[in-house]
Amino acid sequence: MASQPTLLAKFQEVARHTRIYTGGKVVTHVSAVDGAHGFFVCACGPELNVVDITTGRLLLVVPCDEDDFTAFALAPSGTELVTAGRSRQLRSWVLDVGVTTCEFTRVWKAHKMPVMDLAYDASGRFVASGSADSTAMVFDVAKGIATHVFRGHTGVVHLVRFHPDASRLHLYTSGADNGVRVWDLRSRACVAELKSHVGLPTAIAFSADGATILTAGRDQLVNVWNAATYSLTTSIAVKLFDTHDMGCRLLFGHTDVVLALDSTAAGRKSAAAAGAAGPAGPAGPTSGAELEVVRARAMSTVLGHTKEVNAVAMAPNDRLAVSASQDRTLKVWSLEGGALKEVGVLKGHKRAVWCVSFSPVDKAVASGGGDASVKIWSVSDFSCLRTLEGHSSSVLRILWLSSGLQLLSSGSDGLIKLWSAKNSECACTLDAHEDKVWALDALETAAGGVELWSGSADSLLVRWKDCTFEAQQETVAARELQLQQESQLQIAMHAQQFDEALKLALRLGHPRALRTVLERLLPLPLVCT
To answer: Can you say where the WD repeats lie in this chain (predicted)?
Structure first.
């Protein structure tokens, strides 16, 4: 006979990962000593984050001081940083990643319009800037003065790069005129113009020996140039390939946004997809071992709801599927024979149904809706078995735990709740998020516990540890201490050690024993009013 799974009762937050990157440029610096340790600098909202490459730990934040950064460049040494703000000011910083500090050293203004990009040369002496005023400038960082001003582009200069060979003193700039220009710092002149792209050049890179230049653009071309003659060597069309068979296959059938997807337990027979237009249907078959899609096709398509389908789930036996919709209903579908056949409708939610999940052992599903409730349904007679109430706003995700004996739910209120599926009681509430908790998953550890992950719209990812056993041990220890103190109280009363008895009565919260002690200590009788 199988043993009863241990019911979870308490989780403890063990780690949290906050937002470190919001898009744009990322610059890395790797230690020259071992080549294994380093950090990267990236934009995070209006500020810059410096993050450890190995651990992902946030080392320090470069503050913008109410002047949002528009560009930045990291010196080759990794100890200096130059930033540009919306005020068009350039600022120089000294970084000390070891002690996680950054110090502002100087500021200067040069361009008439916002700075779009910054880049250091290989020596770390010069920094170049490209601006929306169609110019590129070069500065001596140590002196904070402009040494060069280059004009020639007819549009925004959005990209600047120095040649990796510092002795050449060549600056490459890309502009909105679809051209890449090469500037010689010694002659202060444009020595070449690389014209081949019919779209905006978005990247400039160099080979390790500096003999080859690569430019990539929005025309989906990568152009290869000879760095000595500035002649075009070849053009390569960029395509995205599957790494297994170097092919790409798309699944067609929906006419609007696909909002939900689920697969069979084996993950290789079919996948049920649902979209904003309403139709839901399984797509397949797929092969599982090779992870290659083989002529995937829609096996069945039906218009099952009157509004968007928010979620779909497939039963562990692959015979049933359930769809949850904005129309406040859930529908149960039979998958036998490869065709979708409606076998039941689950009605009860007062608002849109956001999530649905099959029980791993019982013929039941759980759903969460915009009415802030979690409902457990029977897929045999399509009745509502339980309604769990406790969230203050929409329930967004549901997860079964403890072999179907417990449920975990997360909502727009930022809370995560652990429920008993049998008596509808809330075992505990986890509160770490400040916004909608959209992501929820659990993993059974090798030690037999459960590790929980949650993610929310506040860009916070939290890892939780199951500490049910520790909580039970604490409860047992607290009960033993209480019994011990009660025994000590009786002994102190019997021995007429009223001072000690008073302390124990107060600690235990025993009003009757406290009254008895006070009557013995005070000369006047106590009168209750």
So the answer is: 108-149, 150-193, 194-235, 302-343, 346-387, 388-429
Segments making up each domain of the chain, as ranges: 17-237, 258-470, 475-521
Per CATH, 17-237 and 258-470 having the same topology is answered yes
- Alpha-carbon span 178 to 155, nearest angstrom: 9
183: nearest Cα among 230, 115, 243? 230
Rounded CA separation 478/444 (Å): 29
Q: Are 137 and 119 in contact (CB under 8 A)?
A: no
Q: How far is CA 93 from the centre of its chain?
A: 29
- Tell me the two tokens of residue 4: 């009863």
From 3.40.50.300, 3.40.50.720, 2.130.10.10, 3.20.20.450, which CATH number describes the 258-470 domain?
A: 2.130.10.10
The residue whose two tokens read 């290989």 is: 122
Q: Are 176 and 166 in contact (CB under 8 A)?
A: no
Least confident of 217-221, 458-462, 483-487: 483-487
What's residue 124's pLDDT? 93
* Residue where the block lists tokens 């041990």: 473
pTM: 0.63
In sequence order, what E strands does 207-268 have?
A: 212-217, 221-226, 232-237, 258-263
**CA-closest candidate to residue 159, choices 193, 218, 202:** 202
The span from the CA of 165 to the CA of 147, in Å, is 19
Is residue 304 a contact partner of residue 296, using CB atoms and an 8 Å limit?
no
Of residues 345, 393, 402, the one with CA closest to residue 368: 393
SS3 411: strand
Question: β-pairing, 221-226 with 232-237?
Answer: antiparallel
Residue 391 CB partners (closer than 8 Å, separation 6+): 372, 373, 374, 409, 411, 412, 413, 415, 417
Rounded to a whole number of angstroms, the CA Rg of the chain reads 33
* 246 or 298, higher pLDDT: 298
17-237 CATH: 2.130.10.10
